[in-house]
Write a structure and sequence with these properties.
This protein is an all-alpha fold. The protein is built from 18 helices and no strands.
Length: 444
Protein backbone atom coordinates (compact mmCIF):
# COMPACT_ATOMS: atom_id res chain seq x y z
CA UNK A 1 0.00 0.00 0.00
CA UNK A 2 1.29 3.46 -0.92
CA UNK A 3 2.17 5.76 1.97
CA UNK A 4 0.21 9.06 1.79
CA UNK A 5 2.25 12.20 1.23
CA UNK A 6 2.23 14.19 4.46
CA UNK A 7 2.32 17.94 4.97
CA UNK A 8 5.61 17.41 6.84
CA UNK A 9 7.15 15.71 3.77
CA UNK A 10 5.95 18.48 1.46
CA UNK A 11 7.12 21.25 3.79
CA UNK A 12 10.53 19.60 4.18
CA UNK A 13 11.02 20.38 0.48
CA UNK A 14 8.81 23.46 0.14
CA UNK A 15 10.04 25.63 3.01
CA UNK A 16 13.75 25.55 2.05
CA UNK A 17 12.68 26.01 -1.61
CA UNK A 18 10.66 29.11 -0.64
CA UNK A 19 13.71 30.59 1.10
CA UNK A 20 16.00 29.67 -1.82
CA UNK A 21 13.49 30.90 -4.40
CA UNK A 22 13.24 34.42 -3.02
CA UNK A 23 17.01 34.98 -3.28
CA UNK A 24 16.88 36.28 -6.87
CA UNK A 25 14.06 38.80 -6.27
CA UNK A 26 15.79 39.82 -3.02
CA UNK A 27 18.83 40.88 -5.09
CA UNK A 28 16.62 43.18 -7.18
CA UNK A 29 14.48 44.32 -4.23
CA UNK A 30 17.62 45.23 -2.26
CA UNK A 31 18.96 47.21 -5.21
CA UNK A 32 15.59 48.98 -5.55
CA UNK A 33 15.22 49.74 -1.83
CA UNK A 34 18.73 51.10 -1.39
CA UNK A 35 19.00 52.92 -4.72
CA UNK A 36 15.58 54.51 -4.15
CA UNK A 37 17.05 56.49 -1.23
CA UNK A 38 20.32 57.79 -2.73
CA UNK A 39 20.91 61.53 -2.77
CA UNK A 40 21.55 61.81 -6.54
CA UNK A 41 18.85 61.00 -9.16
CA UNK A 42 17.06 58.54 -6.86
CA UNK A 43 13.85 58.20 -8.91
CA UNK A 44 15.72 57.82 -12.21
CA UNK A 45 18.08 55.27 -10.65
CA UNK A 46 15.13 53.29 -9.27
CA UNK A 47 13.52 53.38 -12.70
CA UNK A 48 16.79 52.14 -14.27
CA UNK A 49 16.83 49.17 -11.88
CA UNK A 50 13.30 48.36 -13.09
CA UNK A 51 14.15 48.55 -16.79
CA UNK A 52 17.34 46.49 -16.47
CA UNK A 53 15.73 43.94 -14.13
CA UNK A 54 12.99 43.36 -16.72
CA UNK A 55 15.57 42.52 -19.40
CA UNK A 56 17.86 40.50 -17.10
CA UNK A 57 14.89 38.55 -15.75
CA UNK A 58 14.05 37.63 -19.31
CA UNK A 59 17.56 36.25 -19.89
CA UNK A 60 17.64 34.44 -16.55
CA UNK A 61 14.21 32.90 -17.00
CA UNK A 62 14.89 31.84 -20.58
CA UNK A 63 18.13 30.00 -19.78
CA UNK A 64 17.35 29.28 -16.14
CA UNK A 65 14.79 26.73 -17.32
CA UNK A 66 17.69 24.26 -17.31
CA UNK A 67 16.98 23.90 -13.58
CA UNK A 68 13.52 22.45 -14.24
CA UNK A 69 14.71 20.18 -17.07
CA UNK A 70 17.62 18.76 -15.04
CA UNK A 71 15.40 18.32 -11.98
CA UNK A 72 12.70 16.54 -13.99
CA UNK A 73 15.07 14.01 -15.55
CA UNK A 74 17.02 13.26 -12.36
CA UNK A 75 13.91 12.94 -10.18
CA UNK A 76 12.27 10.53 -12.65
CA UNK A 77 15.40 8.35 -12.77
CA UNK A 78 15.61 8.50 -8.97
CA UNK A 79 11.98 7.36 -8.73
CA UNK A 80 12.69 4.51 -11.15
CA UNK A 81 15.84 3.48 -9.20
CA UNK A 82 18.16 4.19 -12.15
CA UNK A 83 20.07 7.31 -11.01
CA UNK A 84 23.44 5.86 -12.08
CA UNK A 85 22.37 6.18 -15.74
CA UNK A 86 22.20 10.01 -15.59
CA UNK A 87 25.13 10.88 -13.30
CA UNK A 88 27.13 12.50 -16.12
CA UNK A 89 24.11 14.44 -17.44
CA UNK A 90 24.37 17.51 -15.14
CA UNK A 91 27.97 18.36 -16.15
CA UNK A 92 27.07 18.15 -19.84
CA UNK A 93 23.88 20.18 -19.37
CA UNK A 94 25.69 22.85 -17.32
CA UNK A 95 28.40 23.16 -20.00
CA UNK A 96 25.73 23.83 -22.63
CA UNK A 97 24.03 26.48 -20.49
CA UNK A 98 27.31 28.22 -19.64
CA UNK A 99 28.31 28.44 -23.31
CA UNK A 100 24.94 29.98 -24.16
CA UNK A 101 25.18 32.48 -21.29
CA UNK A 102 28.66 33.66 -22.33
CA UNK A 103 27.42 34.12 -25.91
CA UNK A 104 24.50 36.20 -24.62
CA UNK A 105 26.82 38.39 -22.52
CA UNK A 106 29.07 39.03 -25.51
CA UNK A 107 26.10 39.56 -27.81
CA UNK A 108 24.13 42.04 -25.68
CA UNK A 109 26.92 44.11 -24.09
CA UNK A 110 27.76 46.20 -27.22
CA UNK A 111 24.07 46.77 -28.00
CA UNK A 112 22.84 47.71 -24.52
CA UNK A 113 21.87 51.26 -25.57
CA UNK A 114 19.72 49.96 -28.43
CA UNK A 115 18.18 47.31 -26.15
CA UNK A 116 16.99 49.79 -23.52
CA UNK A 117 15.70 52.22 -26.13
CA UNK A 118 13.28 49.41 -26.99
CA UNK A 119 12.00 49.75 -23.42
CA UNK A 120 11.22 53.45 -24.04
CA UNK A 121 14.22 54.59 -21.95
CA UNK A 122 15.78 57.91 -22.97
CA UNK A 123 17.99 60.67 -21.61
CA UNK A 124 19.30 60.16 -18.08
CA UNK A 125 17.20 57.01 -17.60
CA UNK A 126 18.82 55.43 -20.66
CA UNK A 127 22.33 56.37 -19.52
CA UNK A 128 21.78 54.95 -16.05
CA UNK A 129 20.20 51.76 -17.43
CA UNK A 130 23.14 51.13 -19.75
CA UNK A 131 25.80 51.71 -17.07
CA UNK A 132 23.92 49.47 -14.59
CA UNK A 133 23.46 46.68 -17.16
CA UNK A 134 27.09 46.71 -18.33
CA UNK A 135 28.10 45.65 -14.83
CA UNK A 136 25.22 43.35 -13.86
CA UNK A 137 25.37 41.29 -17.07
CA UNK A 138 28.64 39.72 -15.88
CA UNK A 139 26.70 38.01 -13.09
CA UNK A 140 24.48 36.18 -15.59
CA UNK A 141 26.71 33.10 -16.14
CA UNK A 142 27.13 32.68 -12.36
CA UNK A 143 23.36 32.87 -11.79
CA UNK A 144 22.57 30.36 -14.55
CA UNK A 145 25.25 27.99 -13.28
CA UNK A 146 23.82 28.20 -9.76
CA UNK A 147 20.29 27.58 -11.07
CA UNK A 148 21.48 24.46 -12.92
CA UNK A 149 23.14 23.11 -9.76
CA UNK A 150 19.93 23.83 -7.84
CA UNK A 151 18.18 21.66 -10.45
CA UNK A 152 20.49 18.77 -9.57
CA UNK A 153 19.72 19.14 -5.86
CA UNK A 154 15.99 19.32 -6.57
CA UNK A 155 16.17 16.15 -8.64
CA UNK A 156 17.83 14.46 -5.66
CA UNK A 157 14.91 15.64 -3.45
CA UNK A 158 17.12 18.13 -1.60
CA UNK A 159 16.24 21.81 -1.17
CA UNK A 160 18.31 22.34 1.99
CA UNK A 161 21.66 23.18 0.36
CA UNK A 162 20.11 25.56 -2.22
CA UNK A 163 18.51 27.33 0.75
CA UNK A 164 21.88 27.77 2.51
CA UNK A 165 23.46 29.08 -0.69
CA UNK A 166 20.57 31.48 -1.33
CA UNK A 167 20.57 32.88 2.22
CA UNK A 168 24.33 33.47 2.07
CA UNK A 169 24.06 35.20 -1.32
CA UNK A 170 21.21 37.45 -0.19
CA UNK A 171 23.00 38.53 3.00
CA UNK A 172 26.23 39.27 1.13
CA UNK A 173 24.30 41.27 -1.45
CA UNK A 174 22.57 43.39 1.21
CA UNK A 175 25.85 44.09 3.02
CA UNK A 176 27.71 45.02 -0.17
CA UNK A 177 24.77 47.13 -1.39
CA UNK A 178 24.93 49.32 1.70
CA UNK A 179 28.74 49.62 1.56
CA UNK A 180 29.12 50.24 -2.18
CA UNK A 181 26.05 52.37 -2.89
CA UNK A 182 26.58 54.78 0.02
CA UNK A 183 30.37 54.46 0.37
CA UNK A 184 32.40 54.73 3.55
CA UNK A 185 33.52 58.15 4.76
CA UNK A 186 37.27 58.75 4.31
CA UNK A 187 37.67 55.26 2.73
CA UNK A 188 35.94 55.36 -0.66
CA UNK A 189 33.18 57.49 -2.19
CA UNK A 190 29.59 56.33 -2.83
CA UNK A 191 29.19 54.45 -6.13
CA UNK A 192 25.40 54.92 -6.20
CA UNK A 193 23.72 52.79 -8.90
CA UNK A 194 27.01 51.20 -10.06
CA UNK A 195 27.66 50.10 -6.48
CA UNK A 196 24.37 48.16 -6.48
CA UNK A 197 25.39 46.44 -9.71
CA UNK A 198 28.82 45.44 -8.35
CA UNK A 199 27.21 44.10 -5.16
CA UNK A 200 24.88 41.85 -7.17
CA UNK A 201 27.69 40.44 -9.33
CA UNK A 202 29.90 39.61 -6.32
CA UNK A 203 26.95 37.92 -4.56
CA UNK A 204 26.16 35.88 -7.70
CA UNK A 205 29.80 34.76 -8.00
CA UNK A 206 29.94 33.65 -4.36
CA UNK A 207 26.67 31.72 -4.73
CA UNK A 208 28.13 29.87 -7.73
CA UNK A 209 31.25 29.00 -5.71
CA UNK A 210 29.14 27.68 -2.81
CA UNK A 211 26.95 25.70 -5.21
CA UNK A 212 30.07 23.99 -6.58
CA UNK A 213 31.34 23.18 -3.10
CA UNK A 214 28.08 21.61 -1.88
CA UNK A 215 27.49 19.64 -5.08
CA UNK A 216 30.96 18.07 -4.96
CA UNK A 217 31.01 17.49 -1.20
CA UNK A 218 27.43 16.42 -0.54
CA UNK A 219 26.43 14.44 -3.65
CA UNK A 220 27.93 11.81 -5.93
CA UNK A 221 27.23 13.92 -9.02
CA UNK A 222 30.51 14.85 -10.78
CA UNK A 223 31.15 18.15 -12.56
CA UNK A 224 33.87 16.71 -14.81
CA UNK A 225 32.80 16.35 -18.44
CA UNK A 226 32.94 12.71 -19.54
CA UNK A 227 32.08 10.74 -22.66
CA UNK A 228 29.82 9.48 -24.06
CA UNK A 229 27.11 12.12 -24.36
CA UNK A 230 24.32 11.03 -22.03
CA UNK A 231 21.32 9.45 -23.75
CA UNK A 232 19.01 11.99 -22.05
CA UNK A 233 20.76 15.06 -23.52
CA UNK A 234 18.38 15.11 -26.55
CA UNK A 235 15.42 14.98 -24.12
CA UNK A 236 17.05 17.74 -22.04
CA UNK A 237 17.50 19.94 -25.12
CA UNK A 238 13.93 19.24 -26.23
CA UNK A 239 12.64 20.28 -22.80
CA UNK A 240 14.83 23.39 -22.86
CA UNK A 241 13.53 24.24 -26.34
CA UNK A 242 9.88 24.11 -25.22
CA UNK A 243 10.69 26.05 -22.03
CA UNK A 244 12.66 28.72 -23.90
CA UNK A 245 9.73 29.33 -26.26
CA UNK A 246 7.42 29.39 -23.23
CA UNK A 247 9.67 31.83 -21.42
CA UNK A 248 9.90 34.08 -24.47
CA UNK A 249 6.10 34.27 -24.36
CA UNK A 250 6.30 35.10 -20.65
CA UNK A 251 8.86 37.79 -21.28
CA UNK A 252 6.83 39.21 -24.14
CA UNK A 253 4.26 40.04 -21.47
CA UNK A 254 6.93 41.54 -19.19
CA UNK A 255 8.44 43.51 -22.09
CA UNK A 256 5.13 45.13 -23.05
CA UNK A 257 4.31 45.86 -19.40
CA UNK A 258 7.70 47.54 -18.83
CA UNK A 259 7.53 49.42 -22.13
CA UNK A 260 4.07 50.82 -21.38
CA UNK A 261 5.03 51.73 -17.78
CA UNK A 262 8.18 53.51 -19.00
CA UNK A 263 6.14 55.40 -21.58
CA UNK A 264 3.87 56.79 -18.87
CA UNK A 265 6.85 58.62 -17.27
CA UNK A 266 9.64 58.16 -14.71
CA UNK A 267 7.29 58.13 -11.71
CA UNK A 268 5.27 55.34 -13.30
CA UNK A 269 8.24 53.14 -14.20
CA UNK A 270 9.65 53.69 -10.69
CA UNK A 271 6.28 52.62 -9.23
CA UNK A 272 6.14 49.64 -11.60
CA UNK A 273 9.67 48.67 -10.50
CA UNK A 274 8.62 48.51 -6.85
CA UNK A 275 5.33 46.71 -7.54
CA UNK A 276 6.69 44.15 -10.01
CA UNK A 277 9.62 43.26 -7.75
CA UNK A 278 7.25 42.79 -4.80
CA UNK A 279 5.13 40.58 -7.05
CA UNK A 280 8.23 38.55 -8.00
CA UNK A 281 9.10 38.24 -4.32
CA UNK A 282 5.62 36.96 -3.43
CA UNK A 283 5.57 34.73 -6.51
CA UNK A 284 8.87 33.10 -5.61
CA UNK A 285 7.63 32.58 -2.05
CA UNK A 286 4.57 30.71 -3.30
CA UNK A 287 6.84 28.98 -5.80
CA UNK A 288 8.29 26.91 -2.95
CA UNK A 289 5.23 24.67 -3.18
CA UNK A 290 5.61 24.64 -6.95
CA UNK A 291 9.17 23.43 -6.35
CA UNK A 292 7.87 20.67 -4.09
CA UNK A 293 5.44 19.77 -6.89
CA UNK A 294 8.29 19.77 -9.41
CA UNK A 295 10.49 17.56 -7.20
CA UNK A 296 7.88 15.07 -5.98
CA UNK A 297 5.80 14.76 -9.17
CA UNK A 298 8.86 13.71 -11.18
CA UNK A 299 9.74 11.02 -8.66
CA UNK A 300 6.13 9.74 -8.38
CA UNK A 301 5.69 9.77 -12.15
CA UNK A 302 8.93 7.80 -12.57
CA UNK A 303 7.65 5.29 -10.01
CA UNK A 304 4.17 5.20 -11.68
CA UNK A 305 2.50 6.17 -8.36
CA UNK A 306 -0.46 7.95 -9.99
CA UNK A 307 -2.78 7.95 -6.97
CA UNK A 308 -0.09 9.68 -4.88
CA UNK A 309 0.48 12.11 -7.75
CA UNK A 310 -3.19 13.20 -7.70
CA UNK A 311 -3.09 13.37 -3.90
CA UNK A 312 0.01 15.56 -4.15
CA UNK A 313 -1.69 17.97 -6.56
CA UNK A 314 -4.73 18.33 -4.28
CA UNK A 315 -2.60 19.04 -1.23
CA UNK A 316 -0.34 21.49 -3.05
CA UNK A 317 -3.27 23.53 -4.37
CA UNK A 318 -4.58 23.91 -0.82
CA UNK A 319 -1.22 24.78 0.75
CA UNK A 320 -0.16 27.19 -2.00
CA UNK A 321 -3.55 28.92 -1.95
CA UNK A 322 -3.18 29.48 1.80
CA UNK A 323 0.33 30.90 1.28
CA UNK A 324 -1.02 33.15 -1.49
CA UNK A 325 -3.75 34.45 0.82
CA UNK A 326 -1.17 34.97 3.59
CA UNK A 327 1.10 36.97 1.28
CA UNK A 328 -1.85 39.13 0.24
CA UNK A 329 -2.92 39.65 3.85
CA UNK A 330 0.61 40.54 4.94
CA UNK A 331 0.87 43.11 2.16
CA UNK A 332 -2.50 44.59 3.18
CA UNK A 333 -1.44 44.79 6.83
CA UNK A 334 1.75 46.75 6.00
CA UNK A 335 0.26 48.53 2.97
CA UNK A 336 1.45 52.06 3.78
CA UNK A 337 4.81 51.17 5.30
CA UNK A 338 5.96 49.01 2.35
CA UNK A 339 6.10 51.92 -0.10
CA UNK A 340 8.40 54.11 2.01
CA UNK A 341 10.93 51.28 2.23
CA UNK A 342 11.66 51.89 -1.45
CA UNK A 343 11.18 55.63 -2.02
CA UNK A 344 10.23 58.94 -0.45
CA UNK A 345 9.13 60.49 -3.75
CA UNK A 346 5.49 61.58 -3.10
CA UNK A 347 4.42 61.08 -6.73
CA UNK A 348 5.81 57.53 -6.81
CA UNK A 349 4.24 56.71 -3.43
CA UNK A 350 0.82 57.97 -4.57
CA UNK A 351 0.92 55.79 -7.68
CA UNK A 352 2.16 52.82 -5.68
CA UNK A 353 -0.68 53.02 -3.14
CA UNK A 354 -3.15 53.29 -6.04
CA UNK A 355 -2.14 49.98 -7.64
CA UNK A 356 -0.51 47.77 -4.98
CA UNK A 357 -3.88 46.27 -3.99
CA UNK A 358 -4.09 44.58 -7.40
CA UNK A 359 -0.72 42.86 -6.78
CA UNK A 360 -2.06 41.56 -3.45
CA UNK A 361 -5.38 40.43 -4.94
CA UNK A 362 -3.69 38.28 -7.59
CA UNK A 363 -1.61 36.21 -5.14
CA UNK A 364 -4.04 33.27 -4.71
CA UNK A 365 -4.43 33.01 -8.51
CA UNK A 366 -0.65 33.02 -8.85
CA UNK A 367 -0.45 30.20 -6.30
CA UNK A 368 -2.57 27.82 -8.40
CA UNK A 369 -0.76 28.67 -11.65
CA UNK A 370 2.70 28.25 -10.12
CA UNK A 371 1.89 24.92 -8.43
CA UNK A 372 0.75 23.38 -11.70
CA UNK A 373 3.70 24.92 -13.53
CA UNK A 374 5.89 23.00 -11.07
CA UNK A 375 3.97 19.74 -11.39
CA UNK A 376 4.03 19.82 -15.20
CA UNK A 377 7.77 20.55 -15.17
CA UNK A 378 8.33 17.56 -12.90
CA UNK A 379 6.32 15.40 -15.28
CA UNK A 380 8.47 16.63 -18.17
CA UNK A 381 5.37 17.97 -19.99
CA UNK A 382 7.06 21.15 -21.19
CA UNK A 383 5.10 21.29 -24.46
CA UNK A 384 1.82 21.73 -22.54
CA UNK A 385 3.36 24.55 -20.48
CA UNK A 386 4.61 26.20 -23.67
CA UNK A 387 1.23 26.10 -25.38
CA UNK A 388 -0.75 27.39 -22.38
CA UNK A 389 1.56 30.37 -21.84
CA UNK A 390 1.64 31.34 -25.53
CA UNK A 391 -2.18 31.32 -25.69
CA UNK A 392 -2.53 33.23 -22.39
CA UNK A 393 -0.08 35.91 -23.55
CA UNK A 394 -1.44 36.36 -27.09
CA UNK A 395 -5.15 36.13 -26.32
CA UNK A 396 -5.41 37.49 -22.78
CA UNK A 397 -2.46 39.62 -21.61
CA UNK A 398 -1.67 41.65 -24.74
CA UNK A 399 -5.30 42.43 -25.75
CA UNK A 400 -6.21 43.44 -22.16
CA UNK A 401 -3.08 45.62 -21.86
CA UNK A 402 -3.78 47.49 -25.11
CA UNK A 403 -7.48 47.95 -24.31
CA UNK A 404 -6.69 49.26 -20.81
CA UNK A 405 -4.05 51.59 -22.24
CA UNK A 406 -6.56 52.94 -24.77
CA UNK A 407 -8.92 53.84 -21.93
CA UNK A 408 -6.11 55.47 -19.91
CA UNK A 409 -5.91 52.97 -17.06
CA UNK A 410 -2.08 53.12 -17.07
CA UNK A 411 -0.62 50.95 -14.25
CA UNK A 412 -4.10 49.79 -13.24
CA UNK A 413 -4.34 48.34 -16.74
CA UNK A 414 -0.89 46.76 -16.57
CA UNK A 415 -1.59 44.87 -13.34
CA UNK A 416 -5.16 43.96 -14.33
CA UNK A 417 -3.64 42.34 -17.43
CA UNK A 418 -1.18 40.43 -15.23
CA UNK A 419 -4.03 39.16 -12.99
CA UNK A 420 -6.16 37.86 -15.87
CA UNK A 421 -3.02 36.38 -17.44
CA UNK A 422 -2.29 34.34 -14.31
CA UNK A 423 -5.86 33.00 -14.23
CA UNK A 424 -5.57 32.03 -17.91
CA UNK A 425 -2.31 30.20 -17.15
CA UNK A 426 -3.58 28.19 -14.20
CA UNK A 427 -7.05 26.93 -15.09
CA UNK A 428 -6.11 25.00 -18.30
CA UNK A 429 -3.29 23.17 -16.48
CA UNK A 430 -5.62 22.07 -13.65
CA UNK A 431 -8.14 20.75 -16.18
CA UNK A 432 -5.50 18.96 -18.28
CA UNK A 433 -3.84 17.33 -15.25
CA UNK A 434 -7.09 15.99 -13.82
CA UNK A 435 -8.28 14.80 -17.22
CA UNK A 436 -5.07 12.78 -17.69
CA UNK A 437 -4.46 11.32 -14.24
CA UNK A 438 -7.88 10.87 -12.57
CA UNK A 439 -8.87 8.05 -15.00
CA UNK A 440 -5.54 6.29 -14.32
CA UNK A 441 -6.22 6.39 -10.57
CA UNK A 442 -9.75 5.04 -11.05
CA UNK A 443 -8.45 2.23 -13.29
CA UNK A 444 -6.03 1.15 -10.57
Amino acid sequence: METPISLKHINKLAVPAIIAGISEPILSLTDAAIVGHISVNATESLAAVGVVTAFLSMLIWVLGQSRSAISSIISQYLGAGKLEEVKNLPAQAIAIILMLSVLICLGTYPFSTAIFKLYNASGLLLDLSVSYYKIRVFGLPFTLYTFAVFGVFRGLQNTYYPMLIAITGALINILLDVLLVYGIADVFPPLYLKGAAYASVVAQFLMAALATYFLLKKTEIPLRLTKPINKEIPKFLNMIGHLIIRTLALNTALYFATRFATGYGNAYIATYTIAINLWFFAAFAVDGYASAGNILSGKLYGAKSYSLLVQLSNRLIKYAFIVGLAMGAMGALFYKSIGVVFTTDPEVLTEFYNIFWIVLLMQPFCAIAFVFDGIFKGLGKMKDLRNVLILATLFVFIPVLFIMDYYGWKLHGVFTAFTLWMIARGIPLVIKFRKQFLPQVQNH
